[in-house]
Amino acid sequence: MKAHLLFTDADFVLIDHPDENQHDRFADLELGVLVRAMAADDAFLAETATAALHQPLTDADQIRHRQQALTDALANPDAIRALYALPVQALAEAKRIYSWGLSSPSGMVHHGSQLMEVYIRYLRSLRLLADENAPAFRSPAFTTLFQMLQSELTDEYFEEIDEHLAQLRFRHGVLSSAHLGEANKPTRITLRRPSGRRIPLLQRLGFTHPAHTMTIPDRDEAGFSALHELQDRGVDLVANALIQSTDHIKSFLTMLQRELAFYLGAINLHDALTAQGEPTTIPTLTDTAGFAADELYDIALVLISGRPAVGNTIDATATPLVVITGANRGGKSTFLRSLGQAQLLTQCGLFAPATALSTGVRTGIFTHFKREEDKQLVSGKLDEELGRMSRIVDAVTPGAMVLFNESFASTNEREGSEISRHVVHAFRDRAVTVAFVTHLFDFAHQLREENREDTLFLRAHRAEDGGRDFTLTEGEPLSTSFGWDVYQRVFGDEKDPRPAERMSLTAFEEP
Fold this sequence. Notes:
Number of helices: 17
Order of helices and strands: HHHHHHHHEEHHEEHEEHEEHEHEHEEHH
């Protein structure tokens, strides 16, 4: 049996060791906040959510497979929680069964029978949940799962299992046949099904014995040892078959728990956002290199602050290069995170933080955000930035997406602009979608001068009084980031001593 809730033809596999690019993306997009909301204090859900966010899909059909299942899950949250609870309880109860005597076939039969009794009890409950909830689900993933449970876990199946388990208790002893081999050693020992005839009462009480009976004296340890050896050889094949069967059911329950955990985590995240009045949408997949979003917002910021989100409506369908400039603390980095989160969640088959989103499927999603100074003093900031950039270049393929947040700002304006320009041109030539937040005016201005139709310039909005509403609008780059506004907010209403000179400077030049 296979669940196949996350893939149409494969099981979900955890990543043991994410690479450095995956670690950077997880940190830059603040995905830890999303994982905590998805987990709701459940370590298993956290592990599943983390693994899923590390593995965005690149196949549109597989993404749609999850989107359809997610739509069912969001419409039937109580059913998903009930389904998830069953494998959790079954595996926990099976784990408590004392595994003694597994070194002998007889012990394996005893242990396997106990496990099977537990698993069968929960499989019956799973079949009942499938019967109750199947009509409410429409997605191929869940309808296939329910049909499989109903067709394979039939009443006849359970009756047959119960009959086998009753026989494996060996209440009337083990019936085996054997042949005499060389030196009268038993060979071809085979476990036999009991005849089914009722054993006479006196024989069951031990007063009479059937013909051809041999009784071992009470203190004959060698005789008892030989008898147990014969019994173990008789039940050996049965023991192996029973253990394989329990392992198969355990594997199915474990995978069912894992794949249901993905959708339960999505329900938890959806509930957390809905509780704060934030919208979500199932994205539309396109064949374009750009994207279009209505009221796109940063999930992490909403969950951390507890305040309503400020969304951005952007149409970059035909512009795979987006350059974002403008006022300090105006919402540029927040928008970039929201774009990265939306793209990643889309390719994980989840909802996006927006009222509407259409985007293409990327071959990879990479982030290159600014970092704090290296406390170990192993390298300078520019060396560290170039090292991360090298890792991205080694991994990126045509059709990928790379998000830059104030990259190469650790050097001077001219050098940072030159590096940024070469990187962007190389990616654009390789059909890589790029969104670049920058304060490097020379870099942004030269891109603007190219006057290409595949480039969109966005600018953080700033009111005449210096106020920010944290929205982005289309606009050409300015030669200032209005850092003085931030200074005034922090240190008071002092007058700018050199306003004319300040307006001619970029964010990273010295006066």
